[in-house]
Amino acid sequence: MFLPLKEIHEKDNLKFHFITPDNRKLALINKSYELRTIKFKIENDDSVIYAQKVENEFVFTPCYSKMKINEGYNEEDFLWVFDLKDLHSQRIINDYAREISRVGLDESEWLRRWAI
């Protein structure tokens, strides 16, 4: 499961969560409707997904990609950007869980029923 990142530009003056090694600022989108489930092909029986090196970048290709890895990469491929430390990833998971566990409450409805 993947939460997408979007690039934040200096002129936007928005909050960002990560800075890449090439100094790009990325913000995490933690809305439940943005969550994506991606399937990757396992090459060997060791349950590890390996990246391919393409043009000095590490690329992970999902099972349903139409391009071959030696043709370059397309927008459905995933580039390795950086590693997350365990505590940082735990904070992201907690923030996402808090976002999806909110209870929708129509306060005017219970006020109307209480007045009866």
Care to describe what's here?
The protein has 116 residues and is α+β, with helices and mostly antiparallel strands. It has a domain at 41-82. The protein is built from two helices and six strands. Strands 1-3-2 form a three-stranded antiparallel β-sheet, with no helix packed on it.
How large a portion of the residues is in β-strands, by DSSP E?
15-25%
What is the CA-CA span between the terminal residues?
A: 46 Å
Name the shape in a single word. Answer: elongated
Largest sheet: 3 strands, antiparallel
Mean residue pLDDT: 79
Which strands sit side by side, in order, in the main sheet? 1-3-2
Secondary-structure element series: EEEEEEHH
Low-confidence parts, pLDDT < 50 over ≥5 residues?
A: none
Counting DSSP E segments of at least 2 residues, the number of strands comes to 6
Rg, Cα atoms, Å: 20 Å
- Going by helix content, strand content and strand pairing, the class is alpha+beta
Annotation field: number of helices:
2
